[in-house]
């Protein structure tokens, strides 16, 4: 859904782009209930691509908070 919204926006159709982008946000929120650390990060990316920086930051911060200890570290270190 997000891809459809982004393509419509790139075609100069922001009004048409909003509903599929909002649907993508809804789907990411549903996934976040099951896989919070991964899906909240994706939700943050979605918000960022929609130009909603404050919501993107909040989703990324929440994803980082929920991430299991050591999950963000590089396994090669």
Structure description:
This protein is mainly alpha-helical and 77 residues long. The chain has one domain (2-66): Alpha Horseshoe (Serine Threonine Protein Phosphatase 5, Tetratricopeptide repeat). It has four helices and no strands. It has helices at residues 2-10, 14-34, 36-49, 53-66. Helix 1 packs antiparallel against helix 2 (14-34) and helix 2 (14-34) packs antiparallel against helix 3. The longest helix is centred in the first third of the chain and has 21 residues, at 14-34. The radius of gyration is 14 Å and the shape is elongated. The chain starts with a helix and ends in an 11-residue tail after the last helix. The model has no long low-confidence stretch (mean pLDDT 75). It holds the Pfam family TPR_12. Residues 54-77 are annotated as: Disordered. It comes from Microbispora oryzae. This is Tetratricopeptide repeat protein. InterPro entries: TPR-like_helical_dom_sf.
What is the number of helical segments per DSSP (H or I, 4+ residues)? 4
CATH architecture: Alpha Horseshoe
User: Can you write the helix and strand succession as a string?
Assistant: HHHH
Give the overall form: elongated
Q: List low-confidence stretches.
A: none
Total domains? 1
Protein name: Tetratricopeptide repeat protein
InterPro entries: TPR-like_helical_dom_sf
Region (Disordered): 54-77
């Amino acid at each position: 859904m997000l891809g459809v919204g982004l393509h419509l926006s790139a075609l100069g159709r922001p009004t048409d782009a909003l509903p599929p982008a909002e649907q993508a946000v809804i789907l990411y929120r549903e996934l976040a209930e099951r896989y919070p650390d991964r899906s909240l990060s994706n939700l943050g990316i979605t918000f960022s691509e929609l130009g909603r920086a404050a919501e993107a930051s909040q989703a990324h911060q929440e994803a980082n908070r929920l991430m299991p200890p050591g999950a963000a570290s590089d396994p090669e270190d």
